[in-house]
Write a structure and sequence with these properties.
There is one protein chain. With about 200 residues, the chain is α/β, with parallel strands linked by helices. It is built from nine helices and five strands; from the N terminus they run H-E-E-H-E-H-H-E-E-H-H-H-H-H. The protein has two domains: about 140 residues, Ribonuclease H-like superfamily/Ribonuclease H (Nucleotidyltransferase, domain 5); about 40 residues, no CATH class. A five-stranded mixed β-sheet has the order 3-2-1-4-5. Strand 1 and strand 2 form a beta hairpin. Helix 2 crosses helix 5 and helix 3 crosses helix 4.
């Protein structure tokens, strides 16, 4: 197992406040892309933390509570489907990251970012598979994932219960595609993503 604090230890001598930044929902057909920025106390070790995709929902929820309790600051950024369609998903993900950074109650001195660059003047390092190699990025991944999943299971599912959003979280599963074919897209669906999918019973445009 890799040392999830190796990057943090490298930069802590020069930068006390390091923020990890990650996003979730990039590949979904439905809903916002959501990013989180997390500043953890220097030297804190959170047992069991990992890339959010590798954790069970129960484990993510427990780690989310611990991160929210122990973090020096947490910021969330959300970019909706209409904006995703207008500026493309890559730019929307970067915008969500910038928004999350701006929501932090403290100003970090250095950023560790999962495979992206945040549009700001703060020095930063993009790390490929950062959510599996940096505790700060893994924490941001968990916060972003839990935040988005709770929207899928709560407000979004309540608004559009026929689509099964609570089950598939907006991804292009068979159930989701079938319901799109029957019902058509909602205002929260990403039209630019749907153009690449054929639905037998649906004329989208």
């Amino acid at each position: 197992m890799s040392d999830l604090l190796s990057y943090e230890r490298e930069y802590w001598p020069a930068y006390e406040l390091i923020a990890g930044i990650d996003e979730v929902g990039r590949g979904c057909l439905f809903g916002d892309v959501i990013a989180a920025a997390v500043v953890l106390p220097q030297g804190l070790v959170i047992e069991g933390i990992n890339d959010s995709k590798k954790l069970s929902a129960k484990k993510r929820d427990a780690l989310y509570d611990q991160i929210m309790e122990e973090a020096l600051a947490v910021g969330i950024g959300c970019v909706d489907a209409e904006t995703i369609d207008r500026i493309n998903i890559k730019q929307a993900a970067r915008l969500a990251m910038k928004m999350a950074l701006e929501e932090l109650a403290v100003t970090p001195q250095f950023l560790l970012v999962d495979a992206e660059k945040v549009d700001c003047d703060i020095p930063q390092l993009a790390i490929i598979k950062g959510d599996a190699n940096s505790q700060s990025i893994a924490a941001a991944s968990i916060v972003a994932k839990v935040t988005r999943d709770r929207l899928c299971e709560g407000a979004w599912n309540e608004a559009y219960p026929e689509y099964g959003i609570a089950i598939h979280k907006g991804y292009a599963t068979k159930l989701h595609r079938e319901q799109l074919g029957i019902l058509g897209p909602t205002p929260l669906h990403r039209r630019s993503f749907l153009r690449n999918i054929e639905f037998e019973q649906l004329s989208l445009f």
